[in-house]
Design goal:
Layout lengths: L1 H5 L48 E2 L4 E3 L7 E8 L16 E9 L2 E8 L3 H9 L27 E5 L2 E5 L7 E4 L5 E4 L15 E3 L4 E7 L5 E7 L5 E8 L10 E2 L3 E6 L2 E3 L1 H7 L4 E3 L5 E7 L8 E5 L3 E11 L2 E9 L14 H7 L4 E8 L5 E5 L5 E5 L11 E7 L11 E8 L5 E5 L4 E2 L5 E3 L12 E9 L5 E7 L9 E4 L10 E5 H4 L3
Antiparallel strand pairs: 1-5, 2-32, 3-4, 3-33, 4-5, 6-7, 7-8, 8-9, 10-11, 11-12, 12-13, 14-15, 15-18, 16-17, 18-19, 20-21, 21-22, 22-23, 24-25, 25-26, 26-27, 28-30, 29-30, 30-31, 31-32
Length: 511
């Protein structure tokens, strides 16, 4: 496998050969038999679900693990148990968490399904019950009219791992040591409804910043919970109509909310029982800068060029200015390819087009300054978490393979480190037929925000579609272009996933 990782390393980026589709057109040997009956690339190749939960200690390491690598790298993703009862969308797959624990220079691994209420009921029935994202909403079902899989993001909060879903869904807590699902996260009974796919941990103040959205006025709220899981602030935010915001930003004094022109029509939803999303190119994108502990009526809205934004890099304050860096898409719904048949619109949406972008909002004058930072197709951006809400210099993104690369599905082809001060970047490609995962920055054991920002590690899972071998790669955060400083061989194939995170060993093992 090392030869595959190292091939083309000295060639110009434009000549490197990482150009295959992420499903690779071949069935994974350990995928369940029912997947072979369905012509959907998000059920095959590196996307194919696995059927086992395992625990393995003292994993084989190529190279040497740093002694100060201390904590848990965990990733969430879709792993459907039963054959779907409608057209399958990757957001429909049952959530599964894959975690590798680093301690004392060794690595151990375990993976577990997120046993949501829907998962449990379908396990009892022995079949799929809930429709998915592309099915007709069934309002007779308990909970959500489509399956809330809790398969999208995850974070460490209040002594537990918390899993979240693409649409605002019910958060679930997992035991940080065993990954056993403990149940719903309710914030000590104070959570009003649900939680968006992305909430943010402010490590400086030990707070969780979250939001929720729904189809009735006022359409949005945001809240703040303390380190004990108590909601200490929660405010409704009035929007012009139902929206589908995906992320949130924060600074020392503000929360940044998104009102994006990419949303569904309620009349169509009520008539067809399907959520049809449209990008309204004639509407501005609005960002609301809200005093962190202020009333919802205090939000100040800034009109910007029409776009959609999935993920924020970071936000901070500079005098009267509030800065937001994120990955911006001016084409969130690319033109569907008719040759892809009934899945064409889903396939087009999942082919992510985005680039690094900077917005600046003047809180006194209302002025907006915005523009591209870089044109490369990158997303799933991560920073040193100790810098959340403060000015940072580095962002670690995934290179999103394009149609020109030969990709037909969402595929992470390489790791990119951006320097927000110099405007430059460095990049390391995973290799031909090898696909990565979101790569969080992992501060060294005992690190603080006053230490060197990139003085730590960047970690990702990769799966080789030629051999079906999965590995965990550890990079030096200072120089990712040199390749991984260590590789951990995973005990089974890891299906493709969405978001990953890092939990510090100081928190995981503080008991």
């Amino acid at each position: 496998m090392s030869d595959v990782f190292d091939q083309d390393r000295d060639l110009p980026l434009s000549e490197r050969s990482i150009r295959t589709r992420a499903d690779d057109g071949r069935p994974a040997p350990d995928s369940p038999a029912w997947t072979q009956k369905i012509d959907n690339p998000y059920l095959h190749g590196v996307y194919a679900p696995t059927t086992e939960e395992i625990d393995v200690a003292d994993l084989e390491v190529i190279g040497e693990l740093p002694d100060d690598l201390y904590g848990v790298y965990m990733r969430n993703g879709p792993n459907p148990v039963f054959e779907p009862n409608c057209k399958y969308h990757p957001f429909d797959g049952d959530g599964m968490v894959y975690a590798i624990y680093f301690k004392d220079g060794k690595a151990s691994y375990k993976n577990r399904w997120v046993r949501t209420d829907a998962f449990q009921k379908e396990a009892e029935a022995g079949k799929a019950i809930w429709p998915g994202m592309m099915g007709e909403h069934d309002y007779s079902l308990e909970g959500f009219p489509v399956k809330d899989t809790s398969n999208t993001d995850l974070l460490y909060f209040n002594d537990d791992i918390v899993t979240l879903w693409y649409n605002a869904g019910i958060p679930y807590t997992l035991d940080r040591h065993t990954l056993k699902t403990k149940g719903r996260e309710t914030f000590n009974g104070q959570l009003k409804r649900a939680l968006s796919a992305h909430a943010k941990i402010d490590l400086e103040k030990n707070e969780l910043i979250f939001f929720d959205y729904w189809d009735e006025p006022p359409y949005m709220l945001y809240g703040i919970a303390d380190s004990n899981g108590n909601v200490i602030h929660q405010e409704n935010i009035e929007l012009p109509g139902p929206r589908l915001p995906h992320d949130i930003g924060f600074t020392e004094n503000y929360v940044l909310l998104h009102d994006l022109p990419f949303f569904h029509d309620m009349d169509i939803l009520q008539r067809t029982k399907k959520r049809i999303v449209t990008f309204h190119r004639d509407m501005p994108t609005r960002f609301g800068v809200q005093p962190r502990y202020g009333k919802g009526s205090e939000v100040k809205w800034f009109d910007c060029e029409p776009c959609y934004i999935l993920h924020v890099v970071n936000c901070w304050e500079e005098g009267d200015w509030v800065i937001q860096v994120g990955c911006r898409s001016t084409n969130p719904m690319p033109k569907a390819n008719p040759e892809e048949g009934e899945l064409s619109h889903m396939m087009a949406y999942m082919r992510l087009e985005a680039n690094m972008y900077i917005w600046k909002f003047n809180m006194k004058t209302g002025e907006v300054v915005e523009g591209d930072f870089d044109k490369m197709n990158t997303e799933f951006c991560r920073i040193n978490p100790l810098y959340g809400g403060f000015k940072n210099r580095y962002s670690y993104n995934q290179y999103i393979m394009t149609k020109e690369d030969g990709a037909t599905t969402l595929a992470f082809g390489g790791l990119v480190k951006y320097d927000l001060e110099s405007g430059g970047y460095e990049r390391w490609d995973y290799g031909d037929g090898i696909y990565g995962s979101e790569a969080p920055f992992c501060p060294r054991r005992g690190a603080t925000r006053h230490d060197q920002e990139d003085g730590g590690y960047v970690i990702t899972y990769v799966t080789n579609s030629h051999t079906w071998q999965s590995e965990c790669l550890i990079f030096d955060g200072k120089c990712i272009s040199k390749g991984p400083i260590a590789r951990v061989k995973m005990p089974h194939r890891l299906p493709y996933g969405f978001h990953a995170n890092w939990a510090r060993g100081e928190d995981i093992w503080r008991d």
